[in-house]
Amino acid sequence: MRKIGLFATGIASLALTACGSSSPSGTGSSSMPGIDMTTPMASPTATAPSASPGAVGASGNPFADPLPGMPEIPANGVYGDSTSLSPAVEGDPAYIYVPDSNESSGGTTTVIDQHTHKIVRVLPSGVLSQHVTPSHDLRHIFVEASVANRLYGIDPATGQAATSYSIERPYNLYFTPDGKFGVEMDEQHQKIQFTDPNTFKVIKTISDPACQGPNHADFSANGRYFIVSCEFSGELLKIDTVTQSVVGHLSLGNGAMPQDVRLAPDGRSFYVAAMMLNKLVQIPWNDFTVAKEYSTMTMPHGIYFSRDQQRAFVTARGAGAVQVFDLAQEKFVATWQTPEHYHLDMGGLSVDGKTLWISARNEGWVLGFDTTTGAVVAKIRVGGMPHGLLVWPQPGRYSIGHTGVTR
């Protein structure tokens, strides 16, 4: 078991169950089922708060002053028509791409047919394959292989292997809304790297001493800034998209282990899964501080919005469940429990929004949940440690990365 070196021994052992598979001082990971974090954590505190770049104070409009070059913002919210496919992806097969993050036996991505629930093929994708990410223009797919130090390409039109690219320790990949830069999270070396979006040559590197283990992110509605979660230091960073510099820090407390970051459909809040606080944290778009906290089941991890943009589905890894959060009521309204208490990790929705596909990371399965009833309607054995799977195609005009976050 790797050493974390950031926390006391007890916290270090818990870190091994987190989303990242690389710590500040190690290359591997293991998982410990059934962990329930009961030790109180420090209350969230903000340091060096910053007003949002591009914010229009009096108007209170999170869509104002959009990033130059980004596509026009839809009138009906961040995600616009969240059910229509772009012509660029209409012919792509309905597949699920499942990376294996088992460092000792991984190095593959399993391709599953969404309709038949059958494995179509298994592609080589490099040791410690972490997440599967669509390019900004939706025409390419990349698997972030950390130990292999490569992005392995997949052609979404065929589901076959394509060109790969060299880049140091890729963990997660994003794209600025204007498509001008890739943003690669090097969790191992505490680096956030702006790259050429086509060649992935590094253009600028951000390394903030407060951010240990940068892993997940999302952009503001106007694209002017993005928020990054720092898993091993419990920090959130706000980064100006234009100047490519840190403009704010927000600490959730050592040991909080923040994971997924997602912008709400109305653009007015970010939601962050604070895994070891057992909290869903809400952050206003124009005030970099914690506005509200919602208690969750053990170890909240991934956040996904329903196609009608009324609900958020939050995976609770330690509880083996998906919790349904009503955005208007601001409360959890349903729980989908897996009888086996599988450690649910990352996933995505089918195009019609009827199925939520989630990886059971410790158990080697991919599960499909009916989003109306919460029932498990599919269970597909892939082996290894399935991590940040991509459900493809997705509605939207362009991708900002991660496991299929489109707008």
TrEMBL record:
<keyword id="KW-0732">Signal</keyword>
<dbReference type="Pfam" id="PF21783">
    <property type="entry name" value="YNCE"/>
</dbReference>
<protein>
    <recommendedName>
        <fullName>YNCE-like beta-propeller domain-containing protein</fullName>
    </recommendedName>
</protein>
<feature type="domain" description="YNCE-like beta-propeller">
    <location>
        <begin position="106"/>
        <end position="390"/>
    </location>
</feature>
<feature type="compositionally biased region" description="Low complexity">
    <location>
        <begin position="20"/>
        <end position="60"/>
    </location>
</feature>
<dbReference type="InterPro" id="IPR011048">
    <property type="entry name" value="Haem_d1_sf"/>
</dbReference>
<dbReference type="InterPro" id="IPR015943">
    <property type="entry name" value="WD40/YVTN_repeat-like_dom_sf"/>
</dbReference>
<dbReference type="InterPro" id="IPR051200">
    <property type="entry name" value="Host-pathogen_enzymatic-act"/>
</dbReference>
<feature type="region of interest" description="Disordered">
    <location>
        <begin position="18"/>
        <end position="84"/>
    </location>
</feature>
<dbReference type="InterPro" id="IPR048433">
    <property type="entry name" value="YNCE-like_beta-prop"/>
</dbReference>
<feature type="signal peptide">
    <location>
        <begin position="1"/>
        <end position="18"/>
    </location>
</feature>
